[in-house]
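Try this one yourself first.
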């Protein structure tokens, strides 16, 4: 009998129209506590910059907050955009988190800047081709294995006596898959926004996997976007907030997440409608039964060990309801 599918949560801390940023951040705690109680495996926070509809710009702060308000669920980054940060800074931040919450923290790392070109300039973000160097530097700090003549060999990482939590590489095209395997890390694929199939990336990852102390066996996570409601019709109605948000963002309009009523009343350009037509094929929208069957099929066809779910609807209460319905549909064991 196959083992039950592990389910996790990816929280972008969406900011809905009619609410404030403090409201959105307070909601991260409510969702963390709900996910913990429902039996979700882990809760990750994304890093996005310069987006009016997203409050998740500092994953390490949200991780610390969520861990302090929960007991069992793993908390981590999905992910830290490493090119925006000095590798020593990330090594120190996540060693600190691991020391505060031993055995409950994940460090997921992404190549993307998490924002547009203006945000990259403001962050002094490195170029994509530098990611491997940033990653090697962060790991050298953690493992204390710089060559003796390297200037950084004289820099002790604080806090000492602690190692980084388990590392995960995030990908949306398969480019990071082989590297994740060779470095003995976990691998998470962003199928919630990428049209590239995940199965070949997971296969390449497993083929090249070399066990590490933190990751003795290969581990794969499939990211999916889900809106669940009691009926297919209600879920489709609620999901239009996300659909219009994607269309507006892609065509350069920044605003907070609008209500489904306002979204349905919005007159879209042909370009915006084509964005929705293209992107919505990736989203899983429907009743608990519809969502359960679709998630299970995607996990099986891709070879994922775990599925991490991001949900974007205008109502925070209905967002929490969506995660609750999914947990019940899969028979997660409440804690």
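Now uncover the answer:
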């Amino acid at each position: 009998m196959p083992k039950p599918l592990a389910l996790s949560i990816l929280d972008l801390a969406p900011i809905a129209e009619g609410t404030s940023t403090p409201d959105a951040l307070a909601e991260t705690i409510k969702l963390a506590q709900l996910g913990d109680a429902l039996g979700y495996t882990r809760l990750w926070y994304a890093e996005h910059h310069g987006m009016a509809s997203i409050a998740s710009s500092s994953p390490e702060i949200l991780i610390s907050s969520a861990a302090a308000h929960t007991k069992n669920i793993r908390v981590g980054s999905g992910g830290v955009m490493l090119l925006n940060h000095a590798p020593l800074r990330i090594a120190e931040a996540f060693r600190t988190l691991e020391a505060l919450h031993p055995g409950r923290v994940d460090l997921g790392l992404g190549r993307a800047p998490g924002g547009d070109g203006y945000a990259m300039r403001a962050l002094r973000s490195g170029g994509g081709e530098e990611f491997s160097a940033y990653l090697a530097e962060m790991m050298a700090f953690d493992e204390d294995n710089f060559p003796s003549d390297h200037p950084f060999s004289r820099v002790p990482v604080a806090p000492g006596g602690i190692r980084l939590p388990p590392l995960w590489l995030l990908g949306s095209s398969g480019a990071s898959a082989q590297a994740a395997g060779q470095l003995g890390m976990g691998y998470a694929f962003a199928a919630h926004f990428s049209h590239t199939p995940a199965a070949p990336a997971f296969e390449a990852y497993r083929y090249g996997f070399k066990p590490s102390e933190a990751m003795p066996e290969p581990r794969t996570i499939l990211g999916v976007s889900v809106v669940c409601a009691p009926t297919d019709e209600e879920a489709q109605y609620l999901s239009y907030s996300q659909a219009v948000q994607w269309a507006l963002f892609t065509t350069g309009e920044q605003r907070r997440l609008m209500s489904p009523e306002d979204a349905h009343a919005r007159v879209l350009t042909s370009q915006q409608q084509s964005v929705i037509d293209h992107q919505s094929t990736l989203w899983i929208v429907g009743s608990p039964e519809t969502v359960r069957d679709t998630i299970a099929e995607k996990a099986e066809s891709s070879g994922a060990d775990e599925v991490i779910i991001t949900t974007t609807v205008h109502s925070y209460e209905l967002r929490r309801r969506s995660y609750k319905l999914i947990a019940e549909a899969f028979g997660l064991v409440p804690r």
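Discussion: The mean pLDDT is 94. The first strand starts at residue 6 and ends at 11.
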